[in-house]
Amino acid sequence: MSLHIGRRTAALTVALVLGSGALAGCSEPVAEAAAGSTAAKVEEIDGQPSRITLQGKAAQRLGLATQPVAAGRGAARLTVPESAILYDPDGQTFVFTNPKDSVYVRAEVTVVEIANGRASLSAGPPAGTAVVTVGAAELFGVETGLGQ
Prior knowledge:
Elements: H1 7-24, H2 28-34, E1 40-45, E2 48-54, H3 58-62, E3 65-68, E4 70-73, E5 76-81, E6 86-87, E7 93-100, E8 103-108, E9 110-115, E10 118-123, E11 130-134, H4 136-144
Antiparallel strand pairs: 1-2, 2-8, 3-11, 4-5, 5-10, 6-7, 7-8, 9-10
Helix pairs in contact: 1-4
C-alpha cells in the first residue's frame, strides 16, 4: 500500500511548509542561516541540492533536533516521527538525515501510512539513521534559498 496524495493536498502541504519557513524566516536565527554564504553551504549532488552544511552556531540557533529511524513491521519496514516528513513541490516525500555534526542530507522516503504522530515507511534511510524532527522546514528553506 502506498500513500497517494492529491495535487490539492500536496500544494497545501508545500504552502504550509513554506509558510512556516517564511514565518520563521522573520526571526534572526533563520534569516542568518538562510543568508547562505556565511551560515550555510548547500552542495548539489547529481544536479540536485542535497547536502547542507551549517556554519558556526547556525544549527543551534535554528533549534534543530533529531531522532533515529526505527525499525518497523511488515511492509512498513521503518518508522520516523511525522514531523520529519517533508514534501517537495511535486509531492515527493523526503527527510533530512544528520550524518555528522552540522551536516544535513536530503533522503527520499516512501510513506505507507501516517498515524499517531508516526510515519511508516517502506523505503528510506536505514534504522538508526538520525533524521531531523524539529527544524526540517527551516532546512528546506535554506536548501531552496527561501528568504534570501
